[in-house]
Amino acid sequence: QVQLVESGGGSVQAGGSLRLSCAASGYTYSMNCMGWFRQAPGKEREGVAAIWTGGSSTYYADSVKGRFTISQDNAKNTVYLQMNSLKPEDTALYYCAASPVRACWVARSGLYRSAFDYWGQGTQVTVSS
What we know:
Helices cover 5% and strands 50% of the residues.
């Protein structure tokens, strides 16, 4: 089993920044693809970013390219999502996800919820205009 705990959410004004953290524990040895997804009220959960922790390749949704950066600290089993130039439409519950490397192979063509095996409980991000 893998446990994922997100932190760092909060409320900011448009144009502000937040950094989300995802701490992984348990059987993380083979979880080489870590991702961030988000879900706004009444909308489907959508992929935001992913990172192959074995090689640091990164993948982003078009809506966040140039504004968000995913990174890792393997020594801490932690993945981060630095979010800059936040917009009201970024408001959502942000989830961390983990999977074996195959999820990152899939990420080359898109970030799909079905590709990830383990999920955190989410952290709320609210951006006001």
